[in-house]
Amino acid sequence: MIRKFLKRVFRKPAKTKTAGNAQVIPFELHGVAREQISYGAKKVTDGLQAAGYQAYVVGGAVRDLLLERTPKDFDVATDATPEEVRRVFRRSRIIGRRFQIVHAMFGEEVVEVSTFRSMIEAEDAQTDEHGRLLRDNQFGDQEQDAARRDFTANALFYDPSTQEIYDYHNGYADTRKHLLRMIGDPLVRYREDPVRMVRAVRLSAKLGFRLDTATAAGIGAMKGLLDNVPQSRLLDEVLKMLLSGHSVECIQQLRKMDLHHGLLPLLDVILEQPMGEKFVMLALRNTDERISQDKTVSPAFLFAALLWHEVLAAWNIRVQQGERPVGAMHAAMDEVLTRQKAQLAIPHRHDAVMKEIWLLQQRFEQRAGQRPFRLLEQPRFRAGFDFLLLRCASGEVDDELGLWWDEFQDASAERQAEMLQPEQAGDKKRRRRKPRKKPEAANEPAVASEPTA
Ligand code: ATP
Ligand code: MG
Questions:
Q1: Do 26 and 165 fall within a single domain?
Q2: Does residue 228 fall inside a structural domain?
Q3: Which H or E run includes 62?
Q4: pTM for this predicted structure
Q5: Are residues 282 and 387 both part of a single domain?
Q6: How far is ligand 2, taken at its centre, from the CA of residue 61, in Å?
């Protein structure tokens, strides 16, 4: 025991070995210990290795551990086929049609297990007319699996049982240098999958990595190819960016690389209006802060913020044309949502929440009678109020309104009564003419005060 300890302490400086074309980096150099791997990922690699297969933790998790960041999740790569993986873990299921992967479940944790893949040789590859790969996978070995990954820092394999890292593309040194470098020829790799350009921006912003010169230059040359990528895939990447906790850096980087035009049509419009830009950047900064404090963020809230100034513009036009404010708001929301659906596939499931948040904005202006109390009971009050605060901070509405609601929601009954504003004559008249049957009917304001645009 003591001998073992002394041997460890007085060992010669560790060196990198090679195995085939891989550099093998020992624990003594990289310092990532087996204990840092999640329970489930250890179970998966141990279980597969015991059954005679190779199994490694791969991708973002290894990179993040090297950077002393907490990985979002742990992925495992193996030479076992999906069926073979299934046989080793009872609580697992095969998912995906195009390329099957296995989800192995350990309590709350889900470990994604994928079989080593290779890129299909150029002559067999199925591509669209712009060279984008339509099928990019067939089973392969570890070296091939490394080569089909995007960046060198994302192509490291960690073996929890030996605590060694297998590195085929100098990813370890790049990670240490905080350098994001595409594996292979960036022009070829962007052509195969243009989404890699967006990933380059997102990962460099999130990790604070510098983009390698050729990796960055390729983006300038290839950005037009983003137009051919299915909207749903782009939206996935955009969402990852907006919810990365570094959305402000991501947007700044996108604009610097002139990538935002094709990518975020909704930002094109908004960022061109000074008020809209301020509001959107505040919303993003607020989201980043919430993520850094481990608070929840909802995509619907973010989408609602991104589109707000478009809704306001559409609303203003309608009101100027003589439409009633509330009706105009409903019509403006539908108009903007329909337009954006066509450009950026915001899923329908967010519509209801976005609309609720927008509609609440008109109701915040009403501070007389029972209305403020009814508003407090709305399930979406909190989101609506956070949204209102952003509007105040961006200068769209007077701070006084935000401060009033901030105080009102926590005030004593006495103080609340004091704070209420006097009912306006018009309100009373309307109510007398149309007696309410159900109390809920009054939830919709009879006359909305106008959001100041
Ligand atoms: P994050 O920590 O933000 O999840 P990540 O690098 O883990 O970053 P994922 O989208 O989870 O990103 O992808 C997991 C791994 O799959 C990556 O590390 C990379 O090796 C590989 N990968 C993902 N997308 C691509 C792509 N478009 N082309 C090539 N390899 C990819
Ligand atoms: Mg990941």
A1: yes
A2: no
A3: helix 60-66
A4: 0.79
A5: yes
A6: 7
Domain that holds residue 322: 266-421
Q: Are strands 109-115 and 117-118 parallel, antiparallel or unpaired?
A: unpaired
Most distant CA pair in the chain, distance: 94
* 130 backbone dihedrals φ, ψ, rounded to 5°: -100, 5
pLDDT digits (tens, 9 = 90+) for 328-337: 999 999 998 8
Tell me the per-residue pLDDT of 417-436, one tens digit each, with 9 for 90 and over: 999 998 876 555 444 444 44
User: Residue 191 domain-assigned?
Assistant: no
Is the CB of residue 25 less than 8 Å from the CB of residue 172?
Answer: yes
The residues lining ligand 1, judged by C-beta closer than 6 Å to any ligand atom, are 59-60, 72, 75, 149-150, 154-155, 193, 195-196, 199
Domain assignment present for 440: no
pLDDT digits (tens, 9 = 90+) for 227-252: 888 877 887 888 888 888 998 898 88
Q: Whose CA is nearest to atom 21 of ligand 1?
A: 149
The angle at the Cα of 251, spanning 249 to 257, to the nearest 5 degrees, equals 100
212 within some domain: no
Number of folded domains that form the chain: 2
Examine the fold and report which residue of 128, 153, 177 is the final residue of a domain before the chain moves on.
177
